[in-house]
Amino acid sequence: MKLYLVRHAIAEEGADDDARALTKEGVARFRQQVALLERLDVTFDRVLHSPKKRAVDTAELLERLCEGDFEVTPLLASAPTQRLLDACVGEAVALVGHEPHLSTLLAWLVLGEKVAGKVELKKGAVACLDGPLAPGQMQLTWVLPPKVARRAGLD
Amino acid sequence: MARLTLTPQLEHLRASVEAARATLEPEAIHQARVASRRLRVFLTLGGVHVLRDDLRWLARALSRLRDLDVAMAERFGGDFGRWLTAQHEVARRAATDVLQHPRLDGVLRALSFVGPVPKRLALERRSLLVDAVETAWIDLRKASRAGALEALHRVRRRARSARYASEWLGAEPGPFRRLQEAAGAACDVMALGALVREYEAATNRASPTGLQLDAVVVARFVPALLEAGVG
Questions:
Q1: Structural domain tally of chain B?
Q2: Which of A82, A121, B36, B203 lies most in the core, judged by the most C-beta atoms within 10 Å?
Q3: Spatial CB neighbours of B89, under 8 Å, sequence gap ≥ 6
Q4: Picking from A42-51, B80-89, B189-198, which range would have the lowest pLDDT averaged per residue?
Q5: For residues B50 and B150, which has the higher predicted lDDT (pLDDT)?
Q6: Which of residues 35-94 of B touch A (CB under 8 A)?
Q7: Would you call A51 and B109 a contact, using CB atoms and an 8 Å cutoff?
Q8: Do B122 and B169 lie in a common domain?
Q9: Into how many domains does chain A fold?
Q10: Structural domain for B70, as ranges
Q11: What is the rounded CA–CA span in Å between residue B17 and residue B54?
């Protein structure tokens, strides 16, 4: 399967971490990222996202790439677990979440170890993994930092 | 600019989920489904795509228990009554799992961050829902006997969405409510018919009602509904 790890776009600062919305710049930059993903023919048959507002808003921007269901899960707002992997049903699944959990998940699936920060995921970045969905079994195919779309001038 | 907020229905959903978690009472299950559908229509009016699937999941996941609650209220006796009681117990356990599922906590949390919807935008989207009812109604008039049940379901679903959209906007929901209720009565009979067929298949016994309930709907409910009109 293909698993796309999507870090939420740039968000406002705020005391209530769960309620932080995307900034206008965050929305605009992530729209460029979505346009680039569209050019790369990336589609999802399921999008799982954290319930935090910045992840919900980022998932909404992926709507035109999603051919199936959206699903909210608190499992993406905490350290990765087997239960999260069990929820990833499909052939092309996107997970919209937060750091350090996403890079920890990436390392777990590629290297078999739950360590954060082995791959840098900027806000709005997307990483594509391919292979069997099990610890140490997936291959990191590419990472798309948001500046690639920005420099390509995509709308 | 006038705006709509989902807060009252979100509170309704929270309260009914709390009540359902505590008691699994039929009314709490029913209200949880009603609130999730009303919120889904709110998201449609606001052009929000995320969380709609989660609300549909909740309403559907509780539908088996709701259908069995309605059937149990008829107090069937004999083998069918015992079969219903057993199925009801299984459905209560499944509903308990759904009500404890992390996805439900996630959707309640995420819904609290959905912002208000401009009324002008919501009015435009409501007109699409109203058009959809009219299309479904025309399809029902044209439907063959074989297609009538599916067409009736579609009328009910779309009338319900148009009703809830009207209520969100403070518009008169009367015709849509009447249509939803009339189609709903027929759909309740169809739901009972589905349970009877399941019972027959599971036990190799004949229908406890002695009737083909889908045929009753096609022969009686659909003509009566078409006769009464949209209003």
A1: 2
A2: B36
A3: none
A4: B189-198
A5: B50
A6: 48-54, 57
A7: yes
A8: yes
A9: 1
A10: 1-115
A11: 14
Where a domain ends, among B69, B89, B115?
B115
Which residue's entry shows tokens 């590419």?
A142
Query: Which pLDDT score is estimated for B189?
Result: 84
Which of residues B115, B143, B173 is at a domain's end? Answer: B115
Q: Between B102-111 and B52-61, two packed helices, what is the crossing angle to 10 degrees?
A: 140
Q: Are residues B102 and B137 both part of a single domain?
A: no
The pLDDT assigned to B214 comes to 76
**pTM of the predicted model, to two decimals?**
0.92
Please tell me the predicted confidence (pLDDT) of residue A48: 98
Q: What is the pLDDT of residue B148?
A: 85
* Mean pLDDT for the stretch of residues B174-195: 87
Cα-Cα-Cα-Cα dihedral sign, residues B123, B129, B132, B136? negative
Set of chain A residues whose Cβ sits within 8 Å of the Cβ of B53 = 69-71
* Structure ipTM: 0.93
Amino acid A117 reads G
pLDDT averaged over 10-residue windows placed end to end, chain A, 155 residues: 98 92 96 95 97 98 97 97 96 97 97 91 97 98 92 72
Alpha-carbon distances of B135 from A70, A111, B42, B140, B142, rounded to whole Å: 28, 54, 21, 9, 11
- Residues of chain B with Cβ-Cβ distance to A53 below 8 Å are 110, 113
| Best A56, A63, A81 residue to mutate vs chain B (most B CBs within 10 Å) | A56
Under 8 Å CB pairs connecting chains A and B tally to: 54
Residue A143's H or E segment, with its range, is: strand A139-144
